[in-house]
Amino acid sequence: MESVQERLVEFSLEAHDLYLNKSVPHLEGPPEPLQFYRDWIGPNKPCIIRNAFSHWPALSRWTPEYLREKIGSKMISVAVTPNGYADAVAGDRFVMPEERQMSFSSVLDIIEGTVQKAGVFYIQKQCSNLLQELPELVDDLEPHVPWMSTALGKSPDAVNFWLGEANAVTSMHKDPYENLYCVISGEKHFILLPPTDRPFIPYGLYQSAVYQEQDGGEFKVIDNVDSHKVPWIPLDPLDPDMERFPQYQLARPLCCTVKAGEMLYLPSLWFHHVRQSHGCIAVNFWYDMEYDIKYNYFQLLESLSEIANGSS
After folding, report:
1. Structural domains of the chain, with CATH
2. Fewest CB within a 10 Å sphere: which of 5, 97, 244, 259?
3. What is the pTM of this model?
């Protein structure tokens, strides 16, 4: 197995040296579809695009006052955790948030500090919640990104709305989607790792559980007894335990901040960890990835990394 690990390390380092950028590049405007496919989607490289949705009314309209008037009474799904980490490893469990139905205004009350509640609140349901739960906001933007839809020959599978507190954190993971992440207000802070760094990223299998607030305001972890174990990344890139995960020293994460009015292209299967400024509002578009030679290539890398690291 040692030779497999050595080859994977060499391969990853060569990928960084040969074609991956040392920082996330910026484009100054929306690209032509074919050019974007050739330069970014095909090579599977991220970039930040400025002025890509400057025509959206949402950029100027989506103030707390406007949102209260437009959708304040709407009931929406909200993730609640004791520490801001939803869908993350906690000890020997993979713990999901308590999901509550709340009015949009009540979430704004918590974010603005006029109401105090135990826990950290985050609108983050990834089921096309903008279209399903907040259709009143669709006229303030576009239901897809035209040049991306043309480049991929399809419409997005989901359009998601994000709003939360500064303590809300998205733990390191990857998605099988081509992701366009648009920040409407505030900032999002990303740590990115390419699929070729998979040999340095630890995985484990964890009992699934969910947070549940008790009468006294404390949160209890409740096991999902009948569920399968969940493969997840136990490493926190903000404070990596190098003694426990020494291979992570070879990873080369990219850090970037996406500001209001900017769009991050996050390629499929890139690992990412996300933080945000308090009250940040964002919308993202998920386009299902092509299950082609690129997918098969990264799946092979995934399998070899599991063999080399002795995981299942």
Report:
1. 1-183+195-251+262-309 (2.60.120.10)
2. 244
3. 0.91
